[in-house]
Amino acid sequence: MVKNGNVVMQKYELGRLLGQGNFGKVYYGRDLESGQTVAIKVIDKEKVQKAELTEHTKREISVMAMVKHPHVVQLYEVMATKSKIYFVIEQAKGGELFNKLTKGRLKEDAARKLFQQLINAVEFCHSRGVYHRDLKPENLLLDENGNLKVSDFGLSALAESKRQDGLLYTTCGTPAYVAPEVIRRKGYEGAKADIWSCGVILFVLLAGYLPFYDSNLIYMYRKICKAEYKCPNWFPLEVRKLLSRIFDPNPHKRISIAKIKESSWFKKGLGSKQVVNQNVIADGDAVSSSDHTKLELIKPASVSAFDIICWFNLSGLFIDNDQKEELRFTSVKPVPVIISRLVEVGKSLNLEVKKKEVGFLMLEGLNESRYETLCIGVQIFEISVSRYVIELSRSSGDATDYQNMLTQTIRPALEEIVQAWQGVQSYQQSLK
């Protein structure tokens, strides 16, 4: 049981309880080093496993690690003990948008600003293959400046969870906010379902009440499926037109996010667009420590952090340092610094460093005495902001040569970028 005033992993202090659910609680927290206030979601592992929600938790962590946007609640860190999983997340000091709406509808400019931020956040999530599926005011938080923060990815779906026809089939979401195709249970596009929910939210922001509501759930579903709603007389004509295109029962005809952003009402008050450089290095490109441009462009992998948690909790995965195939450590150095050091180590061993895919490098070299190639795979995972797990493992080549390189050259040469080596002993010490 977690008590107020406890310190987690010698890094965060737990404060008052902010909320709780079936599988865990959310606490106010404070970073002991920086003093930054955070929210700490504490999940009971045993309850998750008994409810067969391991994949659900894994998905939530993976999604939060992939989605980093100014208007999405940020995951700072994931930690674990034998019994608990800790999500250290951004604290939205303004609370739930829902609480603000209980005081009444918003003025048009205020509603537009929040809708713009919502659409930008949802568009970003969709670009990463993530669909929220439970968008509603209760899952929309506000920071201290009143800016929107999308939260609660518990029901989110990754693109990989679609069936072969490209559709999602799990009925998720809150009844008043779900799209007609979700209710019909015939498969749906996550992106189009999210757009419908965004339309309901826009209506609520401007009207102060739901567009589709009936105390009888069947009647409410009927209204949703037929898109039966009535705008109050204070709604501007531009908003009415936009909502009519969002509330199209046919998802194939429903307006896209790109078209929403082109609407005259949406564009009011927006500044110039920012252009994001999305250059990447081609697979197989050789990397040199002097090539600063390439080092800057190398990105860590989109992490499935649940697997990383397992590394720190299942001690059976680790073998004594002089026998194990993998070498694993954490680092807080920037990715270019990590890569540069790996390149230098590879060069000292006559190994060439090549980028194979996102977050994955290969150290390759010919052992002339054995006439075979030694290949060492290097994977870099971002587990929180500016904190990484790096794993080296032998892909091919002589095991003895590999072990000698690890103990005599590689491990000593990497010390300067290592925050902590990971293994049975280091894991046990972290729990003390």
Automatic annotation (TrEMBL):
Positions of transmembrane segments: 193-213
Pfam families according to UniProt: NAF, Pkinase
CDD domains: CIPK_C
PROSITE patterns (UniProt xref): PROTEIN_KINASE_ATP (PS00107), PROTEIN_KINASE_DOM (PS50011), PROTEIN_KINASE_ST (PS00108)
Keyword set, alphabetical order: ATP-binding, Kinase, Membrane, Nucleotide-binding, Serine/threonine-protein kinase, Transferase, Transmembrane, Transmembrane helix
Amino acids binding ATP: K41
Cofactor section: Mn(2+)
MF annotations from Gene Ontology: ATP binding; protein serine/threonine kinase activity
Coiled-coil blocks: none
GO BP terms, alphabetized: signal transduction
Matching PANTHER family: CALCIUM/CALMODULIN-DEPENDENT PROTEIN KINASE KINASE-RELATED, NON-SPECIFIC SERINE_THREONINE PROTEIN KINASE
Family: Belongs to the protein kinase superfamily. CAMK Ser/Thr protein kinase family. SNF1 subfamily.
Name the UniProt record assigns to this protein: Protein kinase domain-containing protein
